[in-house]
Amino acid sequence: MKTVDEIAAEIVAREGGFVNDQDDPGGATKYGVTIGTMRRLGLDIDGDGHVNTADVKALSRDRAAAIFKRHYFERPGIGKLPTVLHATVFDMYVNAGANAVKILQRMVSRMGFPASDDGVIGPRTAAAVTAATKAAPDHIVDAYGIERRNYYYAIADGRPASRKYAKTRKGGKGGWIKRAESFISGRYRLTESQHRERTAAWA
User: Fold this and answer.
1) b or e along 46-78 (b: 16 or more beta carbons within 10 Å of the residue's beta carbon)?
2) Which of 44, 88, 35, 93 has its CA nearest to residue 68?
3) Residue 191 has what DSSP assignment?
4) Is 171 within 8 Å of 180 (Cβ atoms)?
5) Which of 65, 90, 87 is nearest to 77 (CA)?
6) What is the distance between the alpha carbons of residues 188 and 20, in angstroms, rounded to a whole number?
7) Span 153-193, pLDDT tens digits
8) Which of 7, 30, 136, 184 has a C-alpha 20 to 30 A away from that of 43?
9) Residues 164-193, buried b or exposed e (16+ Cβ, 10 A)?
10) pLDDT digit string, tens, across residues 73-120
């Protein structure tokens, strides 16, 4: 299994450099760290008394990885979950915040291991997820990855401006879908035709 530091480094690499997409509710972002997160943490990197776009641009890879490890893995308690789920839940938490946990809670509840979908990893959620993992050790990661993929599609269904993250201009799989499927075994990934069928209503 990869260490938390290794997973954080991979997330930083996956997120890419500075972007400021007007269709992204997160605003200016670098290595996946949004300007909102930097303001919440008070990261005035250039020391001018304000946290703005210049500070986002000045963010280093190492600092971004440290932010992820502290605030998106340790603080929400992802370490309480079975190790096999660390990479995918951590990655999703960076991308979707507490929704990453809510998706997992709803999934294990449907599997017969009740957990309140409050986005908090408390003792009951940790126990429910552990029990679900023991019940389906060879499928739990794929199942969660599929739930991630469904979550992204659902966002794009309801928010046209976000569809470019799930579907390319040529109709192929967008970044969101590829990201989710990077944690799914090949046999459970959608074919290009299945993806196009799923997104046909967006045309």
Assistant:
1) eeeeebeeebbeebeeebbbebbbebbbeebeb
2) 93
3) P
4) no
5) 90
6) 33
7) 999 999 999 999 999 999 999 999 999 999 999 999 999 99
8) 7
9) bbbbeeeeebbebbebbbebbeeeebbeee
10) 999 999 999 999 999 999 999 989 999 999 999 999 999 999 999 999
